[in-house]
Amino acid sequence: MSTYQHMSAPADAQTSPRAVVNDPSSALLARAIGLECTVAACLLADHGSLRALRHADASTLRARHGLTPRQITRLHDALDLAAGLIVEPREERPQVTNPREAARLVLPEMGLLESEQMRVLLLNTKNRLIAVVTLYNGTVAACHVRVAEVFREAVRRNATGLILVHNHPSDDPTPSPVMRRM
Length: 182
What we know:
The chain has about 180 residues and is α+β, with helices and mostly antiparallel strands. It has helices spanning about 15-20, 25-35, 35-45, 50-55, 60-65, 70-85, 100-110, 145-155, 175-180, and strands at about 115-125, 130-135, 160-165.
């Protein structure tokens, strides 16, 4: 027998727990805190939203829904983590619109390398940097690359643009025959 007791509310304002059971939030909530899906659905129905549930006190959760202290802690932890994702400041990604900006991003590190290295700068639709991926580490004088490797990470990360960069440890910027063919 469930210890769940439904809070009184106007009939038109209540959401049926059965309707909420199929909600992805109730299924995730049930898994996160170790409840049956119907109990998680009732929690959401009673409190109206995850935001309201986050502010429910432990005595209410224990008395009305039969949650154990461990389940209450897990519930609050899961909802705090979810809230953290929303309020977490987004990292500003640099915009790369010309070769000078690309060089400014990689030159401080790549200029110190003792062997050739090939990297790809992956960009989104606004030319903002998604990632810098090292494709190959070469020798002092060469860095061979397969074209498929260049595009693999771009496709995997949904990049809409890319910039291919590599260094010349010899300080001679003359492209090799291999680079000219690329």
